[in-house]
Write a structure and sequence with these properties.
Elements lengths: L9 H8 L7 E5 L12 E2 L9 E2 L3 E4 L13 E5 L17 E5 L11 E4 L3 E3 L4 E4 L9 E2 L10 E3 L7 H9 L4 E5 L3 E6 L4 E2 L10 E2 L2 H11 L3 E4 L7 H14 L2 E5 L10 H6 L4 E6 L3 E2 L5 E5 L2 E6 L3 H19 L12 E6 L3 E2 L5 E10 L5 E5 L8 H5 L2 E5 L5 E2 L4 E6 L1
């Protein structure tokens, strides 16, 4: 039987993905930037806050007028006008004076601290008792303390979460520079593949790959475009690949990547103009028959036709690659959390192959995380549905013993 043309390790495959350039930047409205990655540093345009503000409800005072105050010997201060929200105070705080101030109110000139209302008592008309001293700047957010004009506000590579969007909105930044979202062409191939809305005849199967891969692309920030199912015809495969590469940054194609008489993906990719084959096979299980090629700055990722293998490879390599194109560091595996868990039972592996095992996370009687392997025959998509994540067995190991603490990469 013909051997794989260019088998490489999983780490080397990841290095090849890192050789592709990141996508160009674009400017988008702030409200469309959730989950996007900054393509350049953002400089702070103004001080936040623009003046000293109170962080509590209380009284603006001169701190030195409260020194020595206690419940038994309170400091007696004369009340001035109240600070109004949304207005700059037009009066000053003099010696022995205090002004009512709400949370967020600007400190009047002369004040350098705020006494919380809980530490005051009403006194004779027009005055209050302060029962606890404050130091300078107590309960005060100083000008520029939240964000200082001219400094770097957020650095390149920052993924924008709701809190970053609120922060930028508070500074009047209505548009942000982010990496462009990758356009991904998704192709399924094979004479036996039919659309999901068609009842398969004997020997046929519905197309699961393109819909699962498209969902993963969207989850990873990409924009998928599904192409029609391509039969096992080299010329049609080549033509569809060319159309997809003309419209996308990355093209994924599932089916026909394994060695054998029906291995048409390699033939079709090799016939593309100015294409460079980077890998035809990874020392990994599942998913050994995976292909990677480059045409200019565009990538072709040939996935196994087997839905479970295709999904595992997409989780381990395609998802991080799409995030990398958008500015994220390139790290193998899904974007989910890593959880340490005790392996419930021993699992075996083949030396020379890096193996990924699907596991379900459970809790034992003491609340400790337990990783229970999800076993099943190779064609069972339900094993992916039942799994919460995967564990990795190094290529130089024969397996992992039950009871060992493992890192679970959550889906």
């Amino acid at each position: 039987m013909t051997e794989f043309f260019h088998v490489i390790t999983a780490d080397r495959f990841l290095e090849c993905l890192g050789g592709f350039p990141r996508l160009a930047g674009e400017t988008v409205p702030l409200d469309d930037a959730l989950g996007r990655t900054l393509s350049r540093d953002l400089a702070c345009p103004e001080d936040l806050p623009e003046g000293a503000r109170s962080t509590v409800d209380g009284f603006a005072v001169r701190a030195r007028d409260t020194f020595g105050a206690s419940d038994s010997i309170p400091a007696l201060l004369t009340l001035g006008p109240p600070v109004l929200m949304g207005e700059l105070p037009r009066f000053e705080i003099g010696a022995g004076e205090a002004a009512p101030i709400p949370t967020g109110g600007f400190l009047p000139p002369g004040a350098d601290a705020v006494v919380m209302v809980e530490y005051t008592n009403p006194a004779e008309a027009g005055s209050i008792e302060v029962t606890r001293p404050v130091t300078e700047k107590a309960n005060v957010l100083e000008r520029g303390e939240d964000a200082l004009s001219g400094t770097t506000l957020l650095a390149t590579g920052k993924v924008l979460r709701p809190q970053e969007l609120g922060f930028l909105a508070a500074l009047g930044i209505i548009e942000v520079p982010v990496y462009r979202r990758p356009r991904v062409g998704v192709i399924s191939s094979g004479d036996e593949i039919v659309p999901m809305d068609r009842r398969p005849r004997p020997g046929q199967v519905r197309d699961a790959n393109s819909h699962a891969i498209s969902a993963l692309v969207r989850e990873s920030g990409g924009i998928p475009t599904l192409f029609d199912i391509v039969p096992d015809d080299v010329a049609r495969l080549e033509r569809t690949l060319g159309e997809a590469l003309a419209a996308a940054d990355v093209v994924t194609m599932s089916g026909g990547s394994s060695v054998g008489a029906r291995d048409l993906m390699l033939q079709a990719v090799s016939r593309l103009p100015e294409v460079e084959l980077l890998a035809h096979g990874i020392a990994i299980r599942p998913g050994k028959p995976t292909l990677l090629a480059r045409q200019g700055e565009n990538a072709v990722v040939g996935l196994p036709g087997h839905p479970v293998s295709a999904l595992v490879i997409a989780q381990i390599f395609l998802a991080p690659f799409l995030r990398y194109l958008q500015g994220a560091p390139l790290a193998k595996g899904p974007a989910g959390h890593r959880v340490q868990a005790v392996l419930a039972t021993s699992v075996h592996s083949t030396i020379g192959l890096e193996e990924y095992i699907r596991v379900r996370l459970e809790r034992d009687g003491e609340g400790n995380a337990v990783a229970r392997p999800v076993f099943g025959k190779s064609g069972m998509l339900s094993t992916m549905v039942r799994a919460d994540g995967i564990i990795r067995i190094p290529m130089n190991a024969e397996g992992l013993p039950g009871g060992e603490v493992v890192d679970v990469i959550e889906f």
